[in-house]
Specification:
Oligomer: heterodimer
Number of helices of chain B: 24
Number of domains of chain A: 1
Helix content of chain A: 10-25%
Strand content of chain B: 5-15%
Shape of chain A: elongated
Number of helices of chain A: 4
Strand order of the largest sheet of chain B: 1-10-7-4-2-3
CATH class of chain A: Alpha Beta
Bound molecules: iron/sulfur cluster
CATH superfamily of chain A: NagB/RpiA/CoA transferase-like
Number of strands of chain A: 11
Largest interface: A-B, 73 and 101 residues
CATH topology of the domain at 67-299 in chain B: Rossmann fold
Strand order of the largest sheet of chain A: 1-11-6-3-2
CATH architecture of chain A: 3-Layer(aba) Sandwich
């Protein structure tokens, strides 16, 4: 008995005149053109991230990150519920900056999620977060405020390089590769853009280096 | 979804007379075109990006079988269960089977147009499974029990007051005109549903063959929730959505958001592969992809083949003067606007959507903006031809075209007929030179007057002018024969 799969493939092949096992010859292409040229990765990344309503800070070294985060949070309504952080950032001196962080994945009630990134993209001002042990995807999704720590060395030019980076680091794609470009938003009522739909209302980026 | 595309004319009539809808269409419809124009203006060479995107989509389609199998092999290797459905109904049954086997009671959905094709929500509902749409527009429509009227802004036909009234009715909250407050209300209301659901159903903007991944593009973050929080994730999508590589995805994403909402990039692009990573504490335990044919394979290699390049950006409807006036519901099925005028008859059968390919002035605004360069007007013309060939047009239309053809083949008669036509129209127009009512063709004059023809027929004018020019030429030649001959001699000496 033929299956739906067989019948669909048979129709596809009869329409196209292809045969099973035929491997298409794709032309080798130069990299796709960039939509907007990247002159300086850090400056362009920063400017484009800001145009997506992310806020951006820049510190010299990793050790300065907790204080920068504390400075940013001081300008927001006080954090009464959880502040979670990716384990790889837990060793920073958060307590010294007066912040009580927990290294775990986020729950819905948590207010701040602090994450690292796999890399960032200058062409669009985008962050790339890969899922995996210690890389909780919920930390950048459930809390109202997402803070991403981005070493300037990981800012790449384009999305193609970002994919290559993930593959180089992980061998194959993890469950989720999330490209994040600013706080969540909707325009579903009267085409009016409202920031803060189901995901974070704020994305704050701390550049390092 | 039940289609009403066969009664397009009646649908249009109702929509044109609906003042509230007309006001909404006028107020919210134009923004897309402006935003797209601005986004394209920020790009160095948007045409080059469109070229690349079109080439990629065209290449995939010519070997769709290969790319589907490549996707299936890699997705399976990564732990995704790949299912094939010939029809929407089959897709629903597959999904129901997955839900039952996993003991699912609550489903959250992010936007999936294929699930609109199949009418999935009703089937799950009938099986006692609670389904919640989580895209804000789709959620509003679920409360209103209406289908989407736009492929990327499903509730564009509703005003804030209508949304507020729906929320008041279903959430028991006071009315408000504050749009951010309405969005906040939906967020508060839907958050617990995200957390409680056992299954997330998403569409799939693209399938990536080299990695066996599903790519999902959203702004609200609901797509991420749906694919991260529940223990089962099912993506349901059309068989034409494959892209060979991640680089191809990157190239296509340079045109999709710009063409759709005028964003340089959508807020969230999620590339999802397999199930939860070993050692991670979020991500689904089960991942399924349902590949749905539902009429697509029949189009391959045929006259409508190119329509399958579509990446569902919505630009064609955002720029369509017909869509802008009648809204999406008039088209009567899942896909409105120019692409809907092609896909609806293609998927449902030409006889079920006879008037859709006619619902265009062929102004080609859609073709000018389509990021994958689908020749939409040409495809509509093809469908019109097919309707004629298959004798599907109404008898009076066929008769009048035959009459016109006969007349056009008899130039002398044609000249007489047009001369008389002008006279009749002038007589009908009366003193103000405007025809207010055309007997037998009142549809044309219902909403506007038709100016009566001025002067004589084109052929009469042509003949008069030609005669005048010849007479002039002769007169000039007769007046200055020497000068003309000298000028000719000078010209022939030039190197
Ligand atoms: S036909 Fe072209 S413009 Fe219309 S939705 Fe598809 S890709 Fe966009």
């Amino acid at each position: 008995m033929s299956t739906a799969r067989d019948r669909i493939l048979a129709r596809v092949r009869s329409g196209l005149g292809t045969r099973a096992g035929e491997v298409p010859d794709r032309p080798v292409r130069s990299p796709a053109p960039l939509a907007r040229p990247v002159h300086d990765r850090v400056t362009d990344f920063r400017q484009r991230a800001e145009s997506l309503q992310s806020t951006v800070d820049h510190v010299d070294e990793m050790d300065a990150v907790p204080l920068a985060v504390a400075r940013y949070l001081a300008g927001l309504p006080p954090v009464t519920n959880g502040m979670v952080v990716w384990p790889e950032l837990a060793a920073l001196d958060w307590a010294g900056a007066g912040l009580a962080v927990e290294a775990r994945s986020a729950l819905s009630a948590d207010q701040v999620g602090i994450t690292g990134v796999c890399c960032a993209i200058a062409e669009t001002g985008t962050l790339l977060l890969d899922s995996g042990p210690g890389h909780s995807a919920t930390a950048s999704l459930l809390p109202e405020t997402h803070i991403a720590v981005v070493p300037v060395a990981v800012i790449l030019e384009r999305m193609e390089e970002a994919f290559a980076q993930v593959l180089a680091r992980r061998g194959e794609l993890p469950r989720a590769v999330n490209f994040i470009s600013g706080p969540s938003r909707t325009a579903d009522i009267e085409q009016t853009i409202v920031i803060g739909a189901h995901g974070p209302r704020r994305v704050h980026i701390v550049l390092v280096g | 979804m039940d289609a009403t595309s066969h009664s397009f004319k009646r649908n249009v009539h109702a929509r044109l007379g609906d003042e509230a809808l007309q006001a909404n269409l006028r107020r919210f419809g134009g923004g897309f075109a402006d935003r797209r124009r601005d986004a394209v203006g920020r790009v160095d060479d948007f045409e080059a990006l469109r070229d690349r995107a079109s080439e990629i989509r065209a290449e995939v389609l010519t070997h769709l079988d290969h790319w589907l199998l490549a996707f299936e092999a890699e997705a399976t290797r990564r732990g995704t269960a790949v299912h094939w459905a010939e029809t929407g109904a089959e897709a629903n049954q597959i999904l129901l089977g997955i839900a039952r086997a996993a003991g699912v009671q609550r489903v959250i959905k992010s936007k999936s147009m294929v699930s609109e094709e199949s009418g999935l929500n009703a089937v799950l509902g009938a099986a006692g499974i609670e389904v919640t749409e989580t895209d804000l527009g789709e959620y509003i429509l679920q409360l209103a029990d209406e289908p989407p009227s736009h492929i990327i802004a499903p509730a564009i036909h509703k005003s804030r007051d209508e949304v507020s009234a729906l929320f008041a009715e279903h959430h028991g909250t006071p009315l408000t005109r504050d749009i951010p407050a309405l969005c906040e209300e939906a967020r508060q209301h839907l958050r617990p549903r995200f957390l409680q659901a056992d299954m997330g159903v998403s569409g799939g903007n693209f399938l990536i063959a080299e990695t066996g991944s599903v790519a999902i593009v959203t702004n609200e973050g609901n797509g991420r929730m749906v694919t991260t929080l529940p223990r089962v994730h099912v993506a349901i999508t059309g068989i034409e959505k494959v892209l060979p590589t991640l680089d191809d995805l990157s190239a296509i994403l340079r045109v999709l958001p710009r063409s759709a909402t005028g964003q340089d990039i959508t807020n969230y692009v999620s590339v999802l592969t397999g199930t939860r990573d070993a050692g991670a504490d979020d991500g689904p335990e089960q991942n399924h992809v349902i590949l749905v044919d539902n009429g697509r394979s029949r189009l391959l290699g045929g006259a409508l083949h190119d329509a399958l390049r579509c990446i569902r950006c919505g630009a064609c409807m955002n720029h369509c003067p017909v869509y802008q006036n009648i809204g999406g519901h008039a088209y009567g099925w899942v896909y409105p606007g120019p692409i809907g005028a092609i896909l609806t008859p293609a998927f449902l059968g030409l006889e079920k959507a006879l008037d859709l390919p006619q619902a265009s002035t062929l102004c080609a605004a859609c073709e000018v903006v389509c990021p994958v360069r689908i020749p939409l007007p040409e495809l509509m013309r093809t469908l019109r031809e097919q309707e004629m060939e298959q004798g599907l047009r109404p008898w009076h239309e066929r008769l009048s075209i035959r009459l016109w053809r006969w007349l056009a083949l008899h130039p002398a008669l044609y000249a007489v007929a047009t001369r008389w036509g002008i006279r009749v129209l002038r007589w009908l127009a009366g003193k103000d030179g405007q025809v207010h009512r055309l007997p037998g063709l009142d549809g044309w004059t219902e909403g506007r007057d038709m100016p009566a023809p001025q002067g004589s027929t084109f052929r009469d004018q042509w003949r008069t002018q030609l005669a005048a020019r010849e007479a002039q030429g002769k007169a000039r030649a007769a007046a200055t024969p020497v000068a003309m001959a000298a000028a000719g001699a000078a010209r022939s000496k030039a190197p």
